[in-house]
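Hi both,

Apologies for the delay on this - the queue was longer than expected. I finally got the zinc ion-bound model through. Below you'll find the protein sequence and the ligand SMILES exactly as submitted, and right after that the structure tokens for the full complex including the ligand.
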Amino acid sequence: MPPRLSALRWLLPLLGAWLLPGCDSGTQGSRPNVLVVVIDTARADRFGCYGHRGGLTPAIDKLAKEGVLFEQASAHAPWTLPSTASLLTSLHPPEHGAGGFLDLSPLEAGGAPKVGFRGLPDAQQTLAETLGAAGWRTGAVVNVDFLDKTFGLTQGVEDLDAQWYDSNNEVRSAKETTDLALKWITKRQQDPFFLLVHYFDVHAVYSPPAEFRARHAAPVDQHDSNFVFGTRAHMLMLRGGKLQLEAPTIERAFKLYEAELAYVDQQVGRLLDGLQAHGVADNTLVVLTADHGEEFLDHGGFEHGHTLYQELLHVPLVLRFPGHLSQGTRFSQSVGLVDVAPTICDLLQVPTPDSFGGHSLARALAGGPLIERPVLSHGNFWGEPLVAWRSGPWKLILTPTGNGDADAGPSERVELYNLENDPQERTNLAGSSADVVARLRADLDSVRSFHAAAASGKSIELDAAAQQRLKDLGYMGDDSDAPHEEDPK
Ligand SMILES: [Zn+2]
């Protein structure tokens, strides 16, 4: 299908620096690089640039000051495989197909957990494939099995350095990851490059280097410097109902998590310094985000994959592109990680594939309006998928609760929160705001039907009202972020 060239018209003034006649825009060297940094499991509220006062993230806070920050960015799934697939394909989990769950019910009968993971189909188009086809050299340094070749998320990556281990204790450190990323940049910097760097240190098990442990985890971590929590054995016991969470243990784990984030921040700083040292910082778009957050008893649970509350969905999103994005800009509107890949395409002046379902933020980055759209999140690592629908200040969460009455069909728990007044999702308003629930549910049902039809490969037959609803919500190839002719340039 033809790329959405129309979406690029309005970018010409923004991108004029390398579009001007006489500039060597046709040569590789003039085209910008892109560095995408994904900090696995990094919840937004631990970053200084998102309001945390613990001094954990000075390097990333500086990056945000030099670039732009989206205050309300959401992941589309609470665990790595479907969420990162959404980031890299600009599709929601029901559309791209990567995901699944881990069924622990056989454990009760003494059996092994049942694994139901699905990789990203070859037919899906990734950001790496898109940029590779446009002439960018593509590389990735990643540290989890879900990003290895097996699951398809890194399809199209020319130089894939993927490593993962049986135990989360042994995972490649942020320092090693940074070393490899810088080594790759040294090798490829003669050409425009796309590099994905994935840090896994913040993910459980939390075992920060001693220096960071001492600085950020004391005093709750004053005894036993070998203490770890969040091993896979812990998680299996926890999900199987065989491990009770104790608040002091989780508080200590949270401090170690923070220390890990501080360590990763130091390494991100080193990576960014490396861009400078290689002389490519001024010609590199940097995008920093996370695939999901982490829970520390915020809603009575621990780790991730099991709910769609904000501690798991609210992720950092920071972009820096010297000379092209105004410094220190912050956007308060809600955006989703599906919006990242089309934004990168626009900023790099690469035609956006038709398959990308998100909306480019480049127009807003150039000073135009940011049209806020509802954000869909989906999935549950440990069972049947949950669904969250964020629309304006409202967030609807639907949780399956079994089949209930056979005649009534599947039942579900309904939660409604007003994130403006209640960002921690404490007060469920579903009972008192039935009209809001009905409105959000109608919108959500339209989109879910659209996804289900798309996933089945069948043609989608919708009446005019349903089509208009989907267009208003930003689906069905809506191109309303592209300006009208009368839009100011
Ligand atoms: Zn993850």
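Main takeaway for now: Confidence is low (pLDDT under 50) at residues 1-29, 478-489.

I'll put the files on the shared drive as well.

H.
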